[in-house]
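Summary for the steering committee. One of the milestones for this cycle was to obtain a three-dimensional model of the protein with 6-O-phosphono-alpha-D-glucopyranose bound, which we needed before selecting residues for the alanine scan. The sequence and ligand used are listed below.
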Amino acid sequence: MCGIVGYVGTEDAVPVLLDGLKRLEYRGYDSAGIAVQTKDGLQWRKCVGRLTELEEALSKHRLQGRPGIGHTRWATHGEPSEINSHPHLDGQGRVAVVHNGIIENYQSLRDQLTAAGHHFLSATDTEVIPHLIEQELANGAADPEAAVRGALKKARGAYALGILFRDQPDTLYAARLGSPLIVGLGDNGYYIASDVPAVVKHIREVIYLNDGEMAVLTSEGVTVKTLDGETVAHTTHPVQMAPEAAERAGFETFMLKEIHEQPRVLRSLLEQHVNDAGQVQLPEVGFSDDYFQLLRRIMIVSCGTAYHAAMYGKFLLEHLTGLAVETDLGSEFRYRSPRIERDTLFVAVSQSGETADTLASLRLAREMKCKVCSICNVQGSTLVRESDSVVFTEAGPEIGVASTKAYTAQLLAFALFSIHVGRARGEITDAYAQELLEALAGVPDAIHYVLERADHIRAIADKHHDGPSALYLGRRFNYPTALEGALKNKEISYQHAEGYAAGEMKHGPIALINEYLPVICICTQTADEVYEKMISNIKEVEARHGRIIALATDGDKQVSTFAEDIIYVPAIREEFSPLVNVVALQLLAYYAAQARGTDIDKPRNLAKSVTVE
Ligand code: G6P
């Protein structure tokens, strides 16, 4: 939610900031702005709308200089407008601030500052920060750094900040509490950003700031400090991501590229975690077999698409480990009175590792003395750093706002984790584990098969995208697939879509069915006990003249007797069919969105990383 970037070094900051913001736009795109130390002093430009608006404004009124800070906004406090855009300034134009997060006590701070004579221009929470700094200086703070520290000690909530002072032309301050922020070290200077991809092409090493730390960057180097001014010894990590990973690589959108990357991502995850003897290796999970044997329960918490992965994980873990498994949404879990104890393993699932509700739930679980394992895509993220153990999904940067490759990687991570825990608990035999792993090995090729039939899926999307709504039905392992298919559709095409457990349809959604409603039915489980049940549910749709689009296994003759359109997928074990089926639904949503002319990578009102509650 909101992206920030900053640079201090030997180059002109403006192109670095604009390029960084382009890569951060997935975090918010209501407005954008930059501030730069120019030869005429501290200057700034802000624009409502996409980054292209800012680029256009800058082509008319050029800025040049260094250091600089930039921001792309997802509005929380105050509508998207020029006045509410970042950077925000103090009353004298001496301090410029970009911020990601929420200053929760901003109203009382604003009241106090207003009483002290400060005049606010915007409706944002952020604007109190430069004014607080200004006030600290007026109160006699020894220097700008001391003023930043003093101001931040008064702010409650979450922030990642980039701060410039007009009177310090070679210094950039950064600070972090609860919102992501990295410091990058490159040949031409030092960088701050909400994530690594924003500056990956410039940097060789990265410092992950901890909560409560600030960094002072000059063109000579970086110092990390506490808010009490003590220098902190920091670890630098080599940047492992190839710069090309953050490019579109010839695809029309990041989302399409990421959909197509899935066979490679899953193949490499399997290669990494299945050894030559056909056993699952998850070294970063770290817990002993004894730990898993004594475990009573698993609680999985996440948000959005990652929640659908959690639901799949529950089905699979129950199926293979004999454990009781519960799931909850991050935003619900933290506000109920969950009964979890030491013998519960808390599993947090998140692509970004920065989702506020997931993190808050994790912290609650830690307070209750649970061990925490996270399934996460981002090394160095807050979630990973606060977990006891981790399964990395290794999908590479996911830039399209709608999650695709991170989702299938989460499903695969759950499959590997379930086999690992099932073996450790003696619930499944080695031979059975190997049978499962052999089936998993077929998943990348099966996805490839679906991708090769993209034109057929596009034709189906072209035919059905027009209506006001669509219903997605699935059962058992594919119930979460139905929810995820519907979510993908509404996120990017804006067609209302609802996912439902097929057996539950007759308790409500059946009232919606008429000769116009597309009903996407997942019935790929030919050899499975729920297949016949699914067929009966589809018959209920047919009897009411719903327009049936079936996802069926190659060679299935039955579905053609009632489906208007069929997407065939290769035969795959039912447990793992969601990894393949969802790819067909991603494409269906993608082409519906394309036909409806939406902005697929940056859908209306959404942000990829939701760092506010
Ligand atoms: C946002 C994104 C979703 C994502 C969810 C959870 O809503 O738009 O795609 O699934 O956040 O994000 P996380 O990073 O925790 O997986």
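Key point for the committee: The pocket of 6-O-phosphono-alpha-D-glucopyranose is lined by residues 303-306, 350-352, 355, 358, 401-403, 606, 608-610 (CB under 6 Å).
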